[in-house]
Write a structure and sequence with these properties.
There is one protein chain. By secondary structure, the chain is of the alpha+beta class. The chain contains 8 helices and 15 strands. Among the domains are: 62-102 and 322-439, f41 fragment of flagellin, N-terminal domain; 110-123 and 226-301, no CATH class; 132-220, no CATH class. A 4-stranded antiparallel β-sheet has the order 4-3-7-8, with helices on one face. It has a 3-stranded antiparallel β-sheet with strand order 1-12-11. A 3-stranded antiparallel β-sheet has the order 2-6-5, with no helix packed on it.
Amino acid sequence: MSGIVLTASVRQNLLSLQSTAELLSTTQNRLASGKKVNTALDNPTNFFTAQGLDNRASDINNLLDSIGNGVQVLQAANTGITALQKLVDSAKSIASQVLQTTVGYTPRSNVSSSPIAGATPSNLLGTGTNATVTGAAIPGATALNTKLSALTTAITTADSLTIDGKTISFNTSGGGNAINSTGASLGGTALTLSTGTTAALTIGGNATTLTKLGLTAGTTPVGASPLSGQTLTIGATGSNGTPTSITFGTGSGQISTLNQLNAALANNNLQAGISPSGVINIVTTNEAASSKIGTIGGTATLAGAAFNGLTNPPAPVADPDSQAARAGLVVQYNNVINQINTTSEDASFNGINLLNGDTLKLTFNETGKSTLNINGVTFNLAGLSLAPLNQGTDFLDSNSANSVLTSLNAASTTLRSEASALGSNLSIVQIRQDFSKNLINVLQTGSSNLTLADTNEEAANSQALSTRQSIAVSALALANQSQQSVLQLLR
């Protein structure tokens, strides 16, 4: 081959053809792969930069799976809380039925005072006792022997007695009741005079007669109210009752009306009423129907006082039908809240249960420095401070139902608070999930910009190079024509 001599034009055309073929091969390779940088030899800077971007995008893409699982864990917990809230609401409905059920005790624990003359709701103190005057013992007089001739006291038909302006005459001739005027009676051996009403008593008449009967002319005032100045104490009634201390009267801080009395009794689960005859009745409220009134004391319970002998109030009497209905509500309540334990245990995803004390840790970047820890809670019955009820102990009265409702309301508040926290964390995770997806797109786009070929440009280049190659072949053919002419001469 060293003996072959090519002309300059042939050599030039050959070199041009080789260069064109090489460029055409590169262009076709780019069109085939879609990349303008396939190896580090093509463009070291772009190749390794793109490779770093692709690697980071791949790492973040791998984290997206765990982030997606985290989203599902949070949604499972949120679904569980929604179900728990419905169970709590159902339990509330059952407890509320207790408040609408007939009172379970008839009668409830109660005490009643003796009649207080003239007492009304606006004046519990009344108008006081009757004005009464009792004379001295009359010798020979008895309730069964009232004939004046049998009395050793010399009372004659000439004697007279005036009571509130009414003159009383004496009969000395017959048996029976010789003292026969309204307001006068012979009890035992002494004469007792009374108005029979809460009004003053005025006595007058012959002074000699008054002396014989042991009476004194004048006006006797109405007696004091049996409640005025008296004290009444009542021990705690029910588990949440507050002991009551009352002083009856019209002074500062004293009780004289029914409204004032009920205001003083309210915190002790008690209420009072008054009958037309002036009897004050104190009874437990519906809320504490199962409770016995606390121990009663004070001067109002002493001998002769309005509440004498009532220091130990009677216990309430259970109503069988009502208590049976309440026992049925206890069963319904327990059936509902027992589902709380199983529901919270089932609210898991991929082995993680944020309602059963598990913790969810999420990593958001490839270095592991961007993380989020979500601590779980324990939302079983104990975790929500709830417990099954006992028949014969719970739902006996409104206080028991209200106590259960208080616990259920607290559990509902706890559930709502945790739902809010889960919602906040879910928003964070979803935001980071979207951010990671967009970041992957940015990284991959950046890598593509460094390595991908412009197919339109490369297609145009391919067409141009093909044309150039055709021209180079034609040029090479023309360059060889002179040598072919020489070959013709040799023939």
